Amino acid sequence: MADSGVTDGLCDTDDIERSKTEGKELTKEEKQRLRKEKKHQKKIKEKKDDAASHEDEKKKKKKKEEKPVGAASQPPTQPSQKVAPAPAPVPVPASETPALADKPAKSKADLKAERRARQESERASKQGKKGDVGQPVPTSKPKAPPSELQPVVKRLPEHVQVDNPDVLKKLAKKLERQQIPLRSDYGYKVSLFSHLHQYSRKAPLTQQLGIPSTVIHPAIVRLGLQYSQGIVAGSNARSVALLHAFKQVIRDYTTPPNEELSRDLVNKLKPYISFLNQCRPLSASMGNAIKYIKKEISNIPSQCKEEEAKSKLLSCIECYINEKIILAAKAIAKYSIEKISDGDVILVYGCSSLVNHILCEAFEKKRKFRVIVVDSRPRLEGREALRRLVQRGISCTYVLISAVSYILPEVSKVFLGAHALLANGYVMSRVGTSQIALVAKAFNVPVLVCCETYKFCERVQTDSFVSNELDDPDELIVTRKGKTQLEHWQEVPSLGLLNLVYDVTPPDFVDLVITDLGMIPCTSVPVVLRVKNVDQ
Amino acid sequence: MPGPDRETDLTERIESFLSDLKRGGSGTGPLRGSAETARETTALLRRITAQARWSSAGDLMEIIRKEGRRMIAAQPSETTVGNMIRRVLKIVREEYARSRGSSEETDQQESLHKLLTSGGLSEENFRQHFTALKANVIEAINELLTELEGTTDNIAMQALEHIHSNEVIMTIGRSRTAEAFLKDAARKRKFHVIVAECAPFCQGHEMATSLSKAGIETTVIADAAIFAVMSRVNKVIIGTQTVLANGGLRAVNGTHTLALAAKHHSTPLIVCAPMFKLSPQILSKVNVHCPVFDYVPPELITLFISNIGGHAPSYIYRLMSELYHPEDHEL
Q1: Which of B202, B267, B290, B296 would best serve as a mutation to test chain A binding (most A beta carbons within 10 A)?
Q2: Is the CB of residue B292 less than 8 Å away from at least one CB of chain A?
Q3: How far is A410 from chain B (nearest CA, A)?
Q4: What are the chain B neighbours of A406 within 8 Å (beta carbons)?
Q5: In which element (H, E) is residue B16 found?
Q6: Is B222 in contact with A463 (Cβ distance < 8 A)?
Q7: pLDDT, greater one: A127 or A100
Q8: What GO annotations for molecular function exist for this entry (chain B) (predicted)?
Q9: Quick one: pLDDT at residue A68?
Q10: Average pLDDT of A137-152?
Q11: Which of A200, A252, A214 is nearest to A477 (CA)?
Q12: N or C: which end of chain A has fewer CB within 10 A?
């Protein structure tokens, strides 16, 4: 290592010569190459959080830690150089050392080939950046198996770090760069939730945009407004609306001269996604849909003509909607109908498009059952579900969530929809779902959750505090008997209103999850995720 | 003649009380809390004792029972009326027994064995006439009234024993007892209160404004968020409409869900209920087809705080026997 310290910065050929004889120097050489490569990668993949970039980050961290160690051991301890890095870095986790041991174990021919590959990728990245997207993926794939078990350093999403001023500053800078207005928080936030945003419905982001907006496509502006005002609500509806808006964007897109469609279109989409995120935080299903689109766009070969590329993308999106949402709903309905028997009393909560679909299908198949719709303030979404079911002719009862323990003895099954299924088996859904599951468990009523696989999410969460959405607090205000008690809540310093949107249900309350892949227990969600990742 | 005037006056008062009850309706009427109802009932019973015509204890009890049944019929969900009537009946019995001689006092149910096997006083006539009975009964009812007036304060005084600093306390709906309890603790300690609004009447809003005006850090949540927020709550303190003989509760809509959520997180559930809310009826959920109230079984309750101290739910049956005579359970 002492030698490499001296020759640090000298021409590459010298290093390459030395590397033929001393395997340990090669590690430093690789470090440099990897660092350069990573810099390129980081510029492109800012928002992607796939395993490759994490792994690279992790390696970078490793290398950073090893470098000071290498520098410290410069005074002659040459023979023991290989061993020194292993015991010396005490804070470095043990899992790094097997990976470190891997490198000297590889043959020199392999290392040379890898070096060549990296040089190629750098050259390609200097020319047209497209190469980088393709290259790092195959080089990191062979390393993927050992790193799966290594601790992954994930970047925390911005929307759960509102109490951190640095993160807010970064966000403001990013939005300024993208020319999107920053939405400001509204009202007094309950201290337990000071790490989350709280926006007001009455101040949508679109009011701060000029007309016409040159930066954001009008379909996206309209979509953002629909999201923030709650006109489009429900995770399936939001995803489908998003995909349709993106289709419009793609149709209207023309590649500027000297740009690649695959590279430029992804960049065009970023400010739109930031804008939509500001209007209303993205849901897990929307996140997965966006990942899919970005991947599809990036995989467009450079020699493809624009019209062809666009039509290919449009058909991809159509296919995604069809497969993941429409056909999945049909499959789930088919499985669920087996679980509905004649004479059942089914309890549903709020308005889940999937559960409504299932009930309507079951009714068409001439099953005899009646439905109890449970609703809650302040959204009162159950009324919409009630309207849809009654239109079909299903006999329904309507109660508020506080009466759930009163009517539950008559109920035979509970069907719940989900917003996302988390990797630790928790179900993230509309606030109140966990309450219904709890009371149902207390009365020994089976709880079935219906969820498409595209809503499966790699996050883990155990309570409803660390990551949630805070809706407009003014929605809780109500007038009863002519008096509005909370009208001037802002003037009272110690009074706060909390309007949560989501909550998480522990897996022990849920008996079965019905997905398009079949009926699985809650704890099998990470297995499905693993299978999905391998497929992709 | 003073007699008939007094009688008409008396009947007028009774009628006006009954119509008040009918209009009032479970505490959502014109500022009528259960404490007020209890006080007014007792005052009216004292008036009846003073002004109605009766010669022996048995007559008095008959009159009280008759009027009592009418009052209960006017507003069946307001159980404090029935409770006060039973209390006064017990007072009459005791005074009668005392006048006859102290031998009857030892017949009080002292042990579980006696409770289960005893059949009450040996002679049921109550036909003997005692001149001092009226004065004694009125004096006893006055004592009862003083006790009623002090209940909320007595309960509130115990607040500091149960609330420590920086706690997060959850409550539901509007209970004047719980409100006084929390406000008293807030004078010396700082803590945070989360109020579930309790739709559709949303009485939680009133509770929240009143608590925040007293300087307590308050948050209003929707009913749907009770379980979501429960993991951060240290204690649940609620009031109730009635305490049943088995230690269960008849409380406002949504309390059962709250109790289940508290049980799941092993959070203690404390009920602040003055003694006049104890009702000798054992109701099962099926009887009450009134979704304004929830039945909460005794296994979900940790502690009852009443004006005479704290008790476990298993002790309620004991208190019942001290307050009411078994014969009066069915009026």
Answers
A1: B202
A2: no
A3: 12
A4: 253, 256, 285, 291, 294
A5: helix B2-24
A6: no
A7: A127
A8: guanyl-nucleotide exchange factor activity; translation initiation factor activity
A9: 44
A10: 46
A11: A200
A12: C
Contact B6, B112 (CB under 8 A): no
Within an 8 Å CB–CB cutoff, is residue A83 touching chain B?
no
- Residue A97's alpha-carbon distances to A27, A83, A111, A146, in angstroms, are 13, 10, 18, 12
Report residues of chain B scoring pLDDT below 70. Answer: 1-6, 24-32, 102-125, 282-291
Of the pLDDT bands very low, low, confident and very high (cuts 50, 70, 90), residue A96 is very low
Average predicted confidence (pLDDT) for chain A: 78
Provide CB contacts within 8 A for A121, sequence distance 6+. Answer: A37, A40, A131, A132, A135, A136, A139
CB of A35 closer than 8 Å to CB of A60: yes
Cβ–Cβ contact A406 with B under 8 A: yes
**How confident is residue A427, by pLDDT bands cut at 50, 70 and 90?**
very high
Cβ A351 vs Cβ A398: under 8 Å = no
Name B254's Cβ contacts closer than 8 Å, sequence gap at least 6. A401, A402, A403, B172, B173, B196, B198, B223, B226, B294
Closest residue by Cα to residue A265 from A201, A194, A217, A210:
A217
Averaged pLDDT, A393-398: 92
Mutate to test the interface with B, among A194, A402, A486 (most CBs of B within 10 A): A402
Q: What is the Cα A205 distance to its own chain's centre?
A: 22
Task: Say which of B219, B229, B254 has its CB closest to residue A496.
Answer: B219
Dump pLDDT digits (tens) for A263-287. Answer: 888 888 888 998 898 888 888 889 9
- Tell whether B179 lies on the interface with A, counting CB pairs under 8 A: no
A51-60, A374-383, A391-400, A510-519: the lowest-pLDDT one: A51-60
Mean pLDDT of A389-410: 91
Task: Report how far residue B90's alpha carbon sits from residue A363's, in angstroms, rounded to the nearest whole number.
Answer: 60
Adjacency order of strands within the sheet including B293-296: B242-243, B249-252, B293-296
Decide if B119 touches A, using CB distance below 8 A: no
Burial B219-238 (b: 16+ CB within 10 A, else e): bbbbbbbbbbbbebbbbbbb
Q: What percent of chain A has pLDDT over 90?
A: 33
Is A439 close to B260, i.e. CB distance below 8 A? yes
Q: Copy the structure tokens of residue B275.
A: 């003694």
Q: Compute and round to an integer the Cα radius of gyration of chain A.
A: 27
Residue predicted with more confidence, A40 or A471: A471
pLDDT of residue A512: 93
**What is the C-alpha to C-alpha distance for residues B88 and B73, in angstroms, rounded to an integer?**
18
For residue A147, what pLDDT is reported?
42
Please say whether the beta carbons of A34 and A63 come within 8 A. yes
CB contact under 8 A, A494 and B209: no
> For residue A429, what is the enclosing H or E element?
strand A427-430
Q: A305-331 burial by CB neighbour count: b if 16+ within 10 A, else e?
A: eeeebbeebeebbeebbeebbeebbeb
- The C-alpha atoms of residue B237 and residue A405 are separated, in whole angstroms, by 20
Task: Identify how many contiguous H helices and E strands chain B contains and give both numbers.
Answer: 12, 10
